[in-house]
Amino acid sequence: MLLIPEVVEMPEDDVGALDERAAELEELGLVLERFGPGAVIVREIPAMLKNLAIKKLVRDLADDFVEWESSSRLRDKLDHVAATMACHGSVRSGRRMRSEEMDALLREMEATPLSGQCNHGRPTWIKLKLTDIERLFGRD
Predict the structure, then answer these.
(1) Which of 17, 24, 28, 37 is the most buried (most CB within 10 A)?
(2) What is the pLDDT of residue 52?
(3) Which pLDDT band, with edges at 50, 70 and 90, does 29 fall under?
(4) Domains of the chain as residue ranges with CATH
(5) In a 3-state reduction of DSSP, which class is residue 128?
(6) CA pair distance 73, 54, nearest whole angstrom
């Protein structure tokens, strides 16, 4: 919830398009209300987007709704921020881990859908056969 709500002025058609999809946007954490003719007021934004230019986002959403009758812009922004947070919070190469930490990480990966790759599409693990390991150590 914003301490000071943000007023965004725009053409009435854009306001109508946002008003029609207010419930859809609210599910994603963006709470808008009509604010007289030609304006909306932003009451709440997703916490992950606190540093985003909210007026631009709202205008871009309205443009998408008017032109295409849909928009994935807000969901895409949320996904991008979440993916960036996941990447930055990951276990980095070369980090030493205790056995308990490794075991806990592997158990979490087993329970996490799509944990076989990172959000950039790179694999998070590989399977080596004994013959592969022997070849790596020159024991062909």
Answers:
(1) 17
(2) 86
(3) very high
(4) 6-83 (3.30.1370.100)
(5) coil
(6) 12
Q: Residue 134: which residues within 8 A CB-CB, separation 6 or more?
A: 140
- Amino acid (1-letter code) at residue 11: P
Q: Round to whole Å and give the CA distance between 55 and 103.
A: 46
Helix residue ranges per DSSP H, 1-140: 12-20, 22-27, 54-68, 73-88, 99-111, 130-136
Query: Could you give the 3-state DSSP secondary structure of residue 49?
Result: helix
Contact 54, 40 (CB under 8 A): no
Among candidate residues 42, 40, 44, the one with its CA nearest the CA of residue 15:
40
Which pLDDT tens digit goes with each residue over 81-109? 888 887 777 888 788 999 999 999 999 99
Give the Cβ contact number of residue 14 at 10 Å.
21
Residue matched to tokens 């150590």: 137
Tokens of 7: 């007023």
Contacts of 124 by beta carbon, 8 Å cutoff, 6+ apart? 109, 115, 116, 117, 118
